[in-house]
Amino acid sequence: SPHQPVASAHRCSHCPPNLCKGKVIEQWLETLAPSRCVYVGDGEGDYCPATRLRVNDMILARQPPHNSLLKLCRARPKTISATVLEWGSDADVLHGGSALLAAMRKALDPF
C-alpha cells in the first residue's frame, strides 16, 4: 500500500499525514528504474512528487484556473529538475506524451 501509517507519518509538509506522493514516486522510480517518467498534476498535492522527478522526466502541470502545481513550480524553480510543460485539456496531455516519445525515439535512432 502506498499509504503510510498515521502513527509513523512522514515529515513532508506538502502531503497529508497518511500519504506522501513524493515518497511513492521515489520508491517507484527506484524499483522500476524507468529511463523517463511523465507526471501529470494540477494541485498542491502534486508538488512534492514533482520535486522528486529527475532531469529527463517531464511534469505536465495544469493551466489556470486549476494551476496550483504550475504556480509552485514557477515560484520555486530550483526545486524542480524535470521539464515543466503546461496543459489545459486532455489533448495537451496527449501532445506532451507524444513529444516525449518522439524525443526518446530520436535519442535511440538519431538518423
UniProtKB/TrEMBL annotation:
<protein>
    <submittedName>
        <fullName>Uncharacterized protein</fullName>
    </submittedName>
</protein>
<dbReference type="Pfam" id="PF06888">
    <property type="entry name" value="Put_Phosphatase"/>
</dbReference>
<dbReference type="InterPro" id="IPR036412">
    <property type="entry name" value="HAD-like_sf"/>
</dbReference>
<dbReference type="InterPro" id="IPR016965">
    <property type="entry name" value="Pase_PHOSPHO-typ"/>
</dbReference>
<dbReference type="GO" id="GO:0016791">
    <property type="term" value="F:phosphatase activity"/>
</dbReference>
<dbReference type="InterPro" id="IPR023214">
    <property type="entry name" value="HAD_sf"/>
</dbReference>
